[in-house]
Design a protein that fits this description.
10 helices; mainly alpha; Serine Threonine Protein Phosphatase 5, Tetratricopeptide repeat; 77% helix; 281 residues
Length: 281
């Protein structure tokens, strides 16, 4: 009897434990069934995945950098084109200014005056008329032997204008040749000083400074009374400045200020002297 009571007591305890298991599981939050987990990646798989991510990021960065560089290059090209256009316009404006000044001076100049009319002959007696005629004949014969035909003013002006038009068109080598041919064909002509000056100007614009300095020196030497003298002095000073020959440049600029004070060339010389002072030359 006692043994049977003990058996029943144990069965009651087991039944109570079984009934209490679901409640315990709910309170502890444990799932009733465990879900299947994916297999963990190996070290090699993880490294491969990381490399793919880094490669994709690097490629995107490179593409972005290339696009930025292309935009910067296009912007720089645009700026360079604008600067080139501005420089071309400035050079053309400067060239046109030089040529306009020369044209105005050329219009102010007149062609050489015709020779003065011969005075009327005095009345001679019939007895002396034969002697006068003989003397005139001898003089005519001797004059024909040594006289030179003066150049045609129209041909001279046309030749000068052709050379000058080449300079205006920017055909500097052709204009240099044309001005040299003009000076050989019309030595001592009324346009000689202008031709000599613009011969130097064509070389100066071409940045052949040695040739330009030689031509401007001929203006100073052969045409000391020419209206082109101040311009030749100024350009000679500019050339010495470009060649870093500061003393010679300063000497010519000072000469311009002393001999041609108040002229445009003297004012430009003063500005260049101020610039040399600022630059410490």
């Amino acid at each position: 009897m006692r043994i049977e009571k003990m058996k029943n007591f144990r069965l009651g305890i087991l039944a109570g434990l079984l009934l209490s298991l679901p409640a315990v599981a709910a309170e502890t939050g444990q799932p009733r069934a465990v879900q299947a987990q994916p297999a963990p990646l190996t070290l090699e798989q993880r490294l491969g995945r990381l490399e793919r991510i880094l490669k994709n990021q690097s490629l995107a960065d490179i593409i972005m950098q290339l696009q930025q560089l292309q935009q910067e290059i296009q912007q720089m090209r645009g700026e360079m084109e604008l600067q080139k256009h501005a420089m071309d316009a400035l050079n053309k404006r400067q060239r046109d200014l030089y040529l306009d000044i020369d044209q105005r001076l050329s219009r102010m100049q007149t062609l050489p005056a015709p020779p003065a009319s011969q005075p009327l002959p005095q009345a001679v007696t019939p007895a002396a008329s034969s002697e006068v005629a003989a003397t005139s004949a001898d003089a005519a014969q001797s004059g024909e032997a040594g006289a030179q035909t003066p150049p045609d003013p129209k041909l001279e002006a046309a030749a000068y204008q052709r050379a000058f038009n080449l300079l205006k068109q920017g055909r500097y080598p052709d204009s240099i040749k044309a001005f040299r041919d003009f000076l050989q064909q019309f030595p001592g002509g009324s346009y000689g000083d202008n031709a000599q000056y613009w011969l130097g100007e064509a070389s100066y614009v071409s940045r052949d400074f040695d040739a330009a300095l030689k031509e401007f020196s001929l203006v100073l030497e052969r045409y000391p009374s020419s209206s082109k003298l101040p311009g030749a002095l100024l350009k000679s000073g500019y050339i010495h400045y470009e060649k870093h020959q500061w003393d010679e440049a300063r000497r010519l600029f000072n000469r311009l200020q002393s001999e041609f004070s108040g002229s445009t060339e003297a004012r430009l010389a003063a500005k260049r002297l101020e610039r040399m002072e600022r630059e410490g030359h």
